[in-house]
Amino acid sequence: MSNAVLPSLIGLNAEVIRTPTWTTNVQRTVAGVEIRGSYQLYPIYEFQLGYEVLKDGNLGTDLAALTGFYLARQGSYDNWLYSDPQDNSVTAATFGTGDGATTAFQLIRAYGAGGFTYTEPVQNLNSAPAIYVNGVLKTLTTDYTVSSSGLVTFTVAPAAAAALTWTGTFYYRCRFLDDQLPFNRMMNGLWAAKALKFRGAPGNFV
Q1: Which domain holds residue 30?
Q2: Which is it for strands 24-28 and 144-146: parallel, antiparallel or unpaired?
Q3: The dihedral of CA 36, 38, 43, 45: what is its sign?
Q4: Is the pLDDT confidence value at 132 over 90?
Q5: Does 71 lie in the same domain as 103?
Q6: What is the mean predicted confidence (pLDDT) over 45-55?
Q7: Which pTM was predicted?
């Protein structure tokens, strides 16, 4: 498992495709009744990015950076981290309620609006999160610790009914979908990669 971060390059196209996906087994009985079973507890998100301009040689190092990153991952073999510009942070997100006994809580985030939200774990932090108990900021290492997978362990169990919230940034853990990545040369020193495809999630599911 790699913690390398997909480089941010200026030639990225504004159009990004992001597709939440599930895996469901659907069977139909002889009476015509459907029986469905879900193979996933949490969604996997598929992305497609396009780089309209990748500078090379005397013009820049974008092509070398993206190619080197892809080769180091051995195509779809290794996983890595991606900071989605549109979905990489939470502010005052609830991740639990104290009961006076439990000390360990997994960081989570809720995605959605208008009464339609879905909660999933966050296991790849970009930096140390700010942790609050009933709105009071707590001190890292003194009041709590955070594991590499986003598990917050309090020194003293939060009181019953205490609201636990956090603010911070996170990555998606991803892998490339393909074992080949076409690069198109437009002119000397200028290339493009029009379909960089990968899948991932805020949790460690790939």
Answers
A1: 17-84+172-201
A2: unpaired
A3: negative
A4: yes
A5: no
A6: 96
A7: 0.91
Are residues 164 and 95 part of one domain? yes
Task: Answer yes or no: is 67 within a domain.
Answer: yes
> What was the pLDDT predicted at 26?
96
Contact predicate 40/50, CB 8 Å: no
Average pLDDT of the chain is: 96
Q: 82 Cβ partners below 8 Å, 6+ apart?
A: 5, 6, 47, 171, 172, 173, 174, 198, 200
How confident is the model over 117-128, as a mean pLDDT? 96
Q: Which residues contact 41 (CB under 8 A, 6 or more apart)?
A: none
How many other C-beta atoms lie within 10 A of the C-beta of residue 77?
Answer: 10
How far is it, in rounded angstroms, from Cα 185 to Cα 162? 58
- % residues pLDDT > 90 (the chain): 96
Residue 41 lies in a domain: yes
Q: Using 50, 70 and 90 to split pLDDT, how confident is the model at 120? A: very high
SS3 labels along 130-164: EEEECCEECCECCCEEECCCCEEEECCCCCCCCEE
Based on the fold, state whether residues 105 and 78 are members of the same structural domain. no
CA 49 to chain centre: 15
